[in-house]
Design goal:
By secondary structure, the chain is of the alpha/beta class. It has a single domain, classed as Zn peptidases (Aminopeptidase), CATH 3.40.630. Helix content is 43%, strand content 18%. The chain is built from 12 helices and 8 strands. It has an 8-stranded mixed beta sheet with strand order 1-2-4-3-5-8-6-7, with helices on both faces. It is globular, with a radius of gyration of 18 Å. The two termini are 33 Å apart. The structure holds D-tryptophan and zinc ion (2 copies). D-tryptophan binds next to helix 6.
């Protein structure tokens, strides 16, 4: 049972959660944010190198990076090593599911107001069928490279920054639910935003922006507008990824998605290219979800959008 911070419960009861969220976020998107340094461009080559390393980890561990398999823990250890070297305070949170131990990796960037936390996350586990490079090496690598860019810039944000990589999402957001339930209402109440990134490089990409919180949605839609990229509200995934337990606990959520098993409409093909009727990701949950199953432009653009949101929301 997830907990809701008392003041958030009151807000939810009064139906003013979005207004409260907008109030919380507006501080980050107000005049002060306009003066914050712009986020750096994240090198897509670094993201692709992370994906190659995740593929190698799967290759060396039975072909997957699934919960309960050696490839998943090797993925966690690989990312933790990079984050520790960059100066993050990291923690591996264990949980059990299906008789196997699962692991969440949480990395805090030292500094910022601990009472106002901006968090970004992605699930690091794959399905048993394959290496899970788009689902969800893409989100995991994008969040990793943005975190490493924070460290490289030695960012001193107003708000505290926290990054997380979840276990056992494919079993029903098990790792992220465990994290939310263990966090406690006091700490949950400090989360101004949780941003989720699951499948950012689908080969026939759509640019879908989570529409759960208007203020967070606007941070992304405004960014894509500057790139002349048309977006659509993300509606397919309600309750289907790691933002769900945070939303249920009253935390404002946002995020990005490029499409899974759904097929592209003619209107979407007109907007984004490709053919109507094509699956956004024909290798979804399949053994062919390898680095070849990535649209570099989509992954590059989405990674830069994450950096923009992190810089803006934490300033
Ligand atoms: N649950 C994700 C895939 C997924 C399907 N629809 C959405 C919408 C938004 C985010 C993710 C997804 C998975 O299979 O990991
Ligand atoms: Zn999946
Ligand atoms: Zn996923």
């Amino acid at each position: 049972m997830s907990r809701i911070a008392p003041w958030r419960r009151a807000a939810l009861a009064a139906g003013t959660c979005t207004a409260v969220a907008s109030l919380l976020i507006s501080g980050a998107t107000g005049a002060g944010a306009a003066n914050s340094a712009a986020a750096p461009d994240i090198d897509i080559a670094a993201v692709k190198a992370d994906l190659a390393e995740l593929q190698s980890i799967a290759d060396a561990n039975g072909g997957n990076r699934a919960h309960g398999q050696a490839g998943y823990k090797a993925s966690v250890d690989h990312l933790k090593k990079k984050l520790d070297a960059a100066g993050f305070t990291t923690k591996i949170q264990e949980f059990t599911h299906g008789g196997a131990t699962g692991y969440n990796l949480v990395a805090d960037w030292p500094g910022g107001d601990a009472e106002n936390v901006v968090m970004a996350g992605a699930h690091l586990d794959s399905v048993d069928e394959g290496p899970g490079i788009n689902d969800n090496g893409s989100g995991s690598a994008a969040v990793l490279e943005v975190a490493l860019a924070v460290a490289k810039a030695d960012l001193k944000p107003e708000k505290h920054l926290r990054f997380a990589w979840w276990g056992a999402e494919e079993y029903g957001m098990v790792g992220s639910t465990h994290y939310v339930n263990e966090l406690g209402s006091g700490e949950l109440g400090k989360l101004d935003a949780y941003l989720n990134f699951d499948m950012l490089g689908s080969p026939n990409p759509g640019y879908f922006v989570y529409d759960d919180d208007p203020a967070l949605e606007k941070v992304f839609t405004d960014y894509y507008a500057t790139k002349n990229i048309a977006t659509e509200p993300e509606t397919e995934g309600d309750g289907r990824s790691d933002h769900a337990p945070f939303k249920e606990a009253g935390v404002p959520v946002g995020g990005l998605f490029t499409g899974a098993e759904a097929t592209k409409s003619q209107a979407q093909a007109d907007k984004w290219g490709g053919k109507a009727g094509e699956s956004f990701d024909p290798c979804y949950h399949s053994s062919c979800d390898s680095p070849k199953n990535i649209d570099d432009k989509a992954l590059d653009t989405n990674t830069d959008a994450i950096a923009h949101a992190i810089w803006q929301l934490s300033s």
